Structures are given as structure tokens and as C-alpha cells.
Structure to design on (146 residues):
């Protein structure tokens, strides 16, 4: 099913995932037991998310992407990096974020050649459950199963 990796290898894998344009998705807990790194074409979760008109409503994320219009050159690099189709080029030929679609993954930040993109913390930050058990119990309660 897998193999143990050290911290250095884990970080190297995350860097590679970022370079390859994969969305890092840790489990929704303060101490996640695992995480996925996926693209929007082959991952069922991301493909489903992308099919919704407002993916941001379906994801627990405490950040969203923001463009600095003074730095953006409209190069479109971020359009292909975004797995949620959240970015477009507006009439002023600058990148524009659709906040209904942005899941705050940060992929658009790391390849912007002018550092025009940044992640902005949301005002009402969400505190994830402490453990996977608490996460599962919370999900069951929301579904009316407990
Ligand atoms: S990658 Fe950066 S400079 Fe290029 S369009 Fe996106 S925000 Fe603008």
C-alpha cells in the first residue's frame, strides 16, 4: 500500500507535486493522517468539484487567491495552473479570480513570473477538527447519522 518516507523526501515530493501542477489536499484535520496531490483531469474529487458552479463552497480552505493589478502582465500562466477554472483574463487584460471557484490551493502563486498572485487569509477562518475521528464524527452528525 505504501512505504515510509523521511521529512526530506516528503518535502521533495511536495515540491515535485507543485512543479507538476498538482493540488495538495491534506485531510481536513489539524494532524492529517495523509494527503493527496492530484490534477483536475484524473482525480475524481477534483473533477467533481470542478463540475460545480461554486467549488469554493464545497472545500474547507482558509485562503483564496488575489491578484495585484499593478504587477499582473496578463501572461495567462495562472490560467493553465488553476485546476478549478477560477481565473480568467478581464477586459483590462489582467488576471481575475472567480472567488466562487477558487479553492485556495495556491498553484497559481508559485509560477506567476511577476509575483502578482498571493494567497489571502479568509476573515472567518475555519478551525479543522483535531483528529480524523473527530472529523468523521462531525461528518456523520452533519448527515444526521448520529
Ligand atoms: S501568472 Fe501572474 S502575471 Fe501572469 S496572468 Fe496570472 S497573475 Fe498575471
Amino acid at each position: 500500500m505504501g512505504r515510509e518516507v523521511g521529512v526530506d523526501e516528503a518535502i521533495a515530493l511536495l515540491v515535485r507535486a507543485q512543479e507538476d501542477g498538482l493540488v495538495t489536499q491534506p485531510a481536513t484535520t489539524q494532524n492529517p493522517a495523509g494527503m493527496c496531490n492530484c490534477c483536475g483531469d484524473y482525480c475524481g474529487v477534483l473533477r467533481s468539484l470542478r463540475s460545480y458552479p461554486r467549488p469554493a463552497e464545497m472545500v474547507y480552505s482558509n485562503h483564496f487567491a488575489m491578484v495585484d493589478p499593478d504587477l499582473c502582465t496578463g501572461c495567462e500562466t495562472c490560467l493553465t495552473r488553476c485546476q478549478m477554472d477560477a481565473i480568467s483574463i478581464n477586459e483590462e487584460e489582467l488576471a481575475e479570480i472567480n472567488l466562487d471557484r477558487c479553492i485556495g490551493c495556491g498553484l497559481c502563486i508559485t509560477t506567476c513570473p511577476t509575483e502578482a498572485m498571493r494567497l489571502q487569509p479568509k476573515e472567518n477562518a475555519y478551525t479543522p477538527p483535531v483528529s480524523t475521528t473527530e472529523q468523521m464524527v462531525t461528518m456523520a452528525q452533519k448527515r444526521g447519522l448520529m
In short: Residues 7-19 form the longest helix (13 residues). Residues 67, 72-78, 95, 112-114, 116-117 surround iron/sulfur cluster (CB under 6 Å). The longest strand covers residues 63-67. The chain has a mean pLDDT of 93.
